[in-house]
Automatic annotation (TrEMBL):
<protein>
    <submittedName>
        <fullName>Uncharacterized protein</fullName>
    </submittedName>
</protein>
<dbReference type="InterPro" id="IPR015424">
    <property type="entry name" value="PyrdxlP-dep_Trfase"/>
</dbReference>
Amino acid sequence: MTSYALKIGEYQLNNDYSIQFKIDLNSPITLKLCHNYVVIGSVSFNNDQCSLLTHQLCETANDLYELLTDLLSTASSSPNSKICLVGDDHLNVSLPIYFSSRNLTKIWSFTIEFLKSPSFNNNTIEEITLDPLDWTDTKSLGHQIMDDMIDYLRDLRFRPTWRPVPLAVQESLAQQDIPLKSQTPWQVYDEVRSLIFPYPLGNIHPRFWG
C-alpha cells in the first residue's frame, strides 16, 4: 500500500468560498468547504470511495488530492478543466481525458457533495460589518459634529491659546474603568466634546507661536 506524508492545502474558489484539503498516511482525504473562512461543510473519502467517486480515475485518496490540487492550480490556464461550486454544498469537477488509441478527447466529470456543518444555515449568515445600525442617526451626528467644528474654529481666537486640564478632569479620567459594554456614537462624542475639545495643545490658535 502506498504511503505518503501529511499534505494540507487551501484554494480560493471565488470571492467568498474556498476549499481546504487534508490527507495523511493512508488515511481518507478530508475536504472542507469554507464561506468567508468559516467551515460550512466537509466530506471524507477513503481509497475505495475515491475510485467510485471519480469513476476509477483516481485509485487512492492521494490520487484525488493530487488531481484536485493540480486542477485548482491550473484551472485559469486550462479552459477545459473546471472546478465550480454549485449552490453551497456541491463541487462539480470536469477535465478532458485524451484517448490516444482513438485520438479522442472526452470530458470526465464527477460531483463532490459536502455535508453541511450543523451550525451553518445559509439564511442566517451575518456579514461582519462596521456599518452603523442607524444611518439616519449617524447622519444627524455627522451634521452636529460639523456644526460644532465650524463654531469651534469661528470662536477660536476668543479663547485662551492653551488651557491646562483641570485636576478634577484628570482624576475623573484616571479613575474611570475600562468600558465593558459598547457606547453609542453620541455618548462617545459627548465625552470627546466635554473632556478633550476644551483642552487642546493650542497649535491651531492664531496666537500660537510654537
